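Q: For a teaching handout, I want to show students what a protein-ligand complex looks like in C-alpha cell form. Below are the inputs, and the small molecule is zinc ion. Please produce the holo structure.
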Amino acid sequence: MSVRTTPRTVAVGALVAAVALAAAALVAVAPLAGTAAPATAATQAPATVPVAGPSCPSGTLSLSIIRSGCTASSGTVRLSDGRTFAVPARGESVVALSVAAPGAAELPEVVVANTGGAGIAVRVDDAWQGAAAAVRQQRSADSAVAGSAATTGTKAATSTKCTSTANVQNRYRWSSPVRWYYNATGSKGTFTQSALQKAANAWTGKITACGKTMTSTAGNTYVRAAGQAPNVTAKGGCSASSGYSVTGWGALPEKTLGVTCVWYDQDGVVQEADQRYSTRYAWSSTASCSGNRYDVQAVATHEWGHLYGLGHVATGTGQVMEAAEGPCALGSRTLGLGDMTGIAAKY
Ligand SMILES: [Zn+2]
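A: Here is the structure, written as C-alpha cells, with zinc ion included.
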C-alpha cells in the first residue's frame, strides 16, 4: 500500500486524499476475543478499545513490517532514506524537523507515532504510512491543525516579511515553559549559548516586529550545561528520548544546518525537544556576520519555532519558518508577520 503524495513543498499538516483508507479494513480487525467482561468491571467499558495487534519483531522495523499492524514499545524504525527513529513509548509521537542550506533538498519532515494497540504510523512530509488503524487515528488528530499553507514560490526579497501572514501550526504544544540544557561540545562559534537564548526568547512574551506588537505565552528556562548529547542522530533521525531537552552540536547530513526532535503525548503535549546543529559548517554568533558562515541566532530562531510548534511555510513568504536559510541571514533573527501571528495564535 502506498500513498500518493503531493509535491514536497506542501507545508506540514496538510491532509492528503484518503486513498490509503481503502486498505484499512483489511488490517487490524482481529476478532474481539473474550468480550465477556468480569462482572465487577462492567460499569464503564470504553466505547472503542483498540484491539492490539501482534508484537513486532525485535530490532529494526521497516515500513513494511509496521504496515502489518504489529505493536512495539521498543526497537527502531528505519526509513528508506536511512534515517532511524527509536520507537517512542506507547501513546507518544516523535517528530524530526530541520532547516536546510539554500538550494538543498531539505530532509522530509518525519513523524513516528506509536498508538500502542493500533500499531505505529509514520508520516514523511504529508504522506502517512504504516499500520492502517494507526494511520487513521493520526490523520484525524492532524486534521485539527490550524494555519495557512501557502503555495510555492521563489525565494523573495524580504518585502513580504511584514505583509505575509503565512504560518503553519503543528499539532504539539508545550503546557509549561521549556526547560532546556546546552552541551557546547563541538560548538562552532563563540558565545553560542547567548545566541541560542536570544533565539529561544524571540518567540516569547511581548513580541515587537514589523511595526506591531503581539503577545505569546510560550516560554523557556535555560537550566544548565548538559553532559549528555541531544537525542538526534547523524542522519537527522531521533534516538530514544531521555526526559531532558538538550541542545548541542554534531554531525548531520550535508546541507542540513539543524534538526529538532520533539516528543509529545497523545494530547499533543510536548515532553522533550532536542536540537542538534551541524558541525559541518562554519558558524557565526557575533553581532555581525561575514563570509560563508551561518548565523547561530538566525538558524536557531527557526529551530525554536519548530520546537514551540510551528511548521514550514512556503518559500517566498519571507518568514523565519521558510525551510531554508542562507549564510549570514541576520534578518531571520527577527520574526515576520506570519511567524508572530502563528506563535501568538498557538500561545
Ligand atoms: Zn525547518
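A: Two things your students might notice: Residues 147-226+281-346 form a domain with the Collagenase (Catalytic Domain) fold (CATH 3.40.390). The CA atoms of residues 73 and 89 lie 6 Å apart.
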